[in-house]
């Protein structure tokens, strides 16, 4: 039986039997490894395989939900690694949540906050799996539980990050030819600024069909670098610059943003709502990158969007190269946002040689479709999962 949104509110808040049936009975965390189609380079690391943690939450009614915690090659982007996530879920968060009703997501979030500080990837994966199980129990989508969809698809860009300009030109042309991507993010910072700009110039010259061009410096430049190279980025018609300075340099970001003819995007600088407000108030950037790994939960991610907008920043759907499960979780929130002018970058599943879900996300006409159906709208392929699990 399907429920209307109004019935959901009444059921979840008043039906004690339903609350009892949605009590959390078991939480499991498994490390998954998937090879990538090519090397992916950032300013501080490079990897050719993706590791993440699959979290499975089983309720008293027997229904299971799934979530995903992603990292970038270990504890380099934030403090978490797949090993630490698995340990925190198993040792601290799971014991705190057994018996807690999934029908009370605010209580789930509060219990996790008391059990562990930060550890946002671990918390986000558990909250995703809990929402997935709850929504499946109600025969609803997670998006409906979060307020309802305002869009069925989101514009999605592709990241060029091999560092090989010839390879990247061919990759960009292929994405345009199949109408998968026309907006591109170019990863900078792992070479000298001069080498990066030569690479960027080649891409601009040889792939003029690129519609929107974003560069992600991954905190690798100094303020002096920005003053020196921003005029060249302007000549190359760059549309947005992501986090050029270290995340803790709010003052430097504000000075660069005040002089830059190109909008700056705040990413690593702001995880908490206080940091988002501070970045917006100080003028560190005019765009904010939304990420589950920064907010630590679907509800907090939705709140972060409102905080960023109220602080004067436009919204961009960021990622940490999540697979289909993590991408579906982000899309469940993105679908509810009144404004998402910069689209999203959830191309992560296409970087994997294989999938662990039966229903991979669909990209067509330069948009990523929001999965349909109960829960997150994606389902595990247990056979493929067995092949991808890290041995215990």
From TrEMBL:
<dbReference type="GO" id="GO:0016854">
    <property type="term" value="F:racemase and epimerase activity"/>
</dbReference>
<comment type="similarity">
    <text>Belongs to the mandelate racemase/muconate lactonizing enzyme family.</text>
</comment>
<dbReference type="GO" id="GO:0030145">
    <property type="term" value="F:manganese ion binding"/>
</dbReference>
<dbReference type="InterPro" id="IPR018110">
    <property type="entry name" value="Mandel_Rmase/mucon_lact_enz_CS"/>
</dbReference>
<dbReference type="Pfam" id="PF13378">
    <property type="entry name" value="MR_MLE_C"/>
</dbReference>
<dbReference type="InterPro" id="IPR029017">
    <property type="entry name" value="Enolase-like_N"/>
</dbReference>
<keyword id="KW-0479">Metal-binding</keyword>
<comment type="pathway">
    <text>Aromatic compound metabolism.</text>
</comment>
<feature type="domain" description="Mandelate racemase/muconate lactonizing enzyme C-terminal">
    <location>
        <begin position="165"/>
        <end position="263"/>
    </location>
</feature>
<keyword id="KW-0464">Manganese</keyword>
<feature type="active site" description="Proton donor">
    <location>
        <position position="345"/>
    </location>
</feature>
<keyword id="KW-0058">Aromatic hydrocarbons catabolism</keyword>
<dbReference type="InterPro" id="IPR036849">
    <property type="entry name" value="Enolase-like_C_sf"/>
</dbReference>
<dbReference type="Pfam" id="PF02746">
    <property type="entry name" value="MR_MLE_N"/>
</dbReference>
<dbReference type="GO" id="GO:0000287">
    <property type="term" value="F:magnesium ion binding"/>
</dbReference>
<dbReference type="InterPro" id="IPR013342">
    <property type="entry name" value="Mandelate_racemase_C"/>
</dbReference>
<protein>
    <submittedName>
        <fullName>Muconate cycloisomerase</fullName>
    </submittedName>
</protein>
<dbReference type="GO" id="GO:0009063">
    <property type="term" value="P:amino acid catabolic process"/>
</dbReference>
<dbReference type="GO" id="GO:0018849">
    <property type="term" value="F:muconate cycloisomerase activity"/>
</dbReference>
<feature type="active site" description="Proton acceptor">
    <location>
        <position position="187"/>
    </location>
</feature>
<dbReference type="InterPro" id="IPR013370">
    <property type="entry name" value="Chloromuconate_cycloisomerase"/>
</dbReference>
<dbReference type="InterPro" id="IPR013341">
    <property type="entry name" value="Mandelate_racemase_N_dom"/>
</dbReference>
<dbReference type="GO" id="GO:0006518">
    <property type="term" value="P:peptide metabolic process"/>
</dbReference>
<dbReference type="InterPro" id="IPR029065">
    <property type="entry name" value="Enolase_C-like"/>
</dbReference>
<keyword id="KW-0413">Isomerase</keyword>
<dbReference type="GO" id="GO:0018850">
    <property type="term" value="F:chloromuconate cycloisomerase activity"/>
</dbReference>
